[in-house]
Design brief:
Arginase, Chain A, eight-stranded parallel beta sheet, two-stranded antiparallel ribbon, binds {5-[(3-aminopropyl)amino]pentyl}boronic acid, binds zinc ion, zinc, Histone deacetylase family protein, hydrolase, His_deacetylse_dom_sf
Length: about 350
């Protein structure tokens, strides 16, 4: 298993997020990835490499050019408004909802923050663009590594910030560039006729779903906390099956808060059965470990040892596989949980 680590991830370090009515320290911290790297040093599952730089055209396979331009220049704009802003993060606070116009781009910075986002939990910082771009580079390098006949069988992209909530032209849910979608599209572009994305993060992968919703060539499957009570609320329900040519190629498996590994694994087995019937040539796993019983913002009850079984079950699909890293906020347990998945996948 090849591992691509984001050398610039720590440059994305948000100060505060809006959470349950107050500004609190960000849950999505650089220490998360440091714990994964430390556990990989203790229990190596493969060589850890830096990714090659990413090409803009590859990002444009998934994201809108004007959105990429906004992300790349947002920090400069924010500081140009007021030099004192350099000591703060930029957080959105106004959004164009039902009945507003979506076809104009205001010049006002706060308005454009709202145009390109959907929550107030995702601060944009001085290093956000550099970190997100290098994270995407990891996902793309992992996709390249498993593509073609001489490729390795599996690769992990240690992406931070995460990606599965980011859409064509919006950030949110701690995500800016959709690493899993970029990997899936890169696998398609490298010749895979069909690609499946299986999202096992606690939260529905709304960004990934929306990117592929009208397409029959990428099956998106997500197992997650029921959005009637869990973030992101407004997408991820069981009746969302795809549209047009993509009808039947999206599957949501929402489970109630409190679900333990037994029922969760039954959903996983069903998801893997659907993946098998789709007969893809490659698999992308959006790997969040916020399904862990100790997670501070999530409400499933997986134990650390359960992640070995998750890894073994994913390996049973017997496909070239790319892992991207998504959530997991019990930081001290995060390294163990992620490496348990990868060891289980590798049959150890
Ligand atoms: C990201 B990932 C809204 C904040 C709500 C967002 C949770 C994002 C989870 N003001 N919390 O899927 O692990
Ligand atoms: Zn999550």
């Amino acid at each position: 298993m090849l591992i691509f680590a984001n050398p610039h991830h720590a440059q994305h370090e948000g100060r505060q997020e809006m959470f349950r009515g107050r500004l609190v320290p960000c849950h999505e911290t650089p220490s998360r990835l440091e714990h994964v790297m430390a556990e990989l040093a203790r229990r190596p599952v493969g060589p850890v490499q830096d990714p090659p730089p990413v090409e803009r055209a590859v990002l444009e396979r998934v994201h809108a050019p004007r959105y990429l331009d906004f992300l790349r220049t947002a920090w400069e704009e924010w500081v140009a408004l007021d030099p004192a802003n350099a000591a703060l993060d930029a957080l959105p606070s106004t959004w164009p909802v039902r009945g507003f116009r979506h076809d104009i781009e205001p010049s006002n910075f706060a308005a454009r923050m709202g145009l390109y986002s959907y929550d107030a939990g995702t601060p944009l910082t001085a290093g956000t663009w550099v970190a997100a771009e290098a994270g995407a580079a990891c996902a793309l390098a992992a996709a390249q590594a498993v593509s073609g006949s001489r490729g390795t069988r599996s690769a992990t992209a240690l992406t931070r910030p995460p990606g599965h909530h980011a859409g064509f032209d919006f950030f949110g849910g701690y995500c800016f560039l959709n690493n899993a979608a970029l990997a899936a599209q890169a696998l398609r572009d490298a010749g895979a006729g069909r690609v499946a994305v299986l999202d096992v993060d606690y939260h529905h992968g709304n960004g990934t779903q929306s990117l592929f919703y009208g397409r029959p060539d990428v099956l998106t499957v997500s197992i997650h906390g029921d959005p009637r009570t869990e973030y992101p609320f407004f997408l991820g329900h069981a009746d969302e099956r795809g549209k047009g040519e993509g009808l039947g190629f999206n599957l949501n498996l929402p489970l109630p808060a409190g679900t333990g590994f037994g029922e969760w694994r039954a959903a996983l087995q069903f998801a893997l059965q659907q993946v098998r019937e789709f007969a893809p040539e490659a698999l992308v796993v959006a790997l969040g470990v916020d399904t862990y019983e100790g997670d501070p913002i999530s409400r499933f009850r997986l134990a650390s040892d359960d992640y070995f079984q998750l890894g073994r079950d994913l390996a049973s699909a017997n496909l070239p596989t790319v892992f991207t890293l998504e959530g997991g906020y019990a930081v001290a347990a995060m390294g163990v949980n992620v490496v348990n998945v990868l060891e289980g996948f590798e049959g150890r």
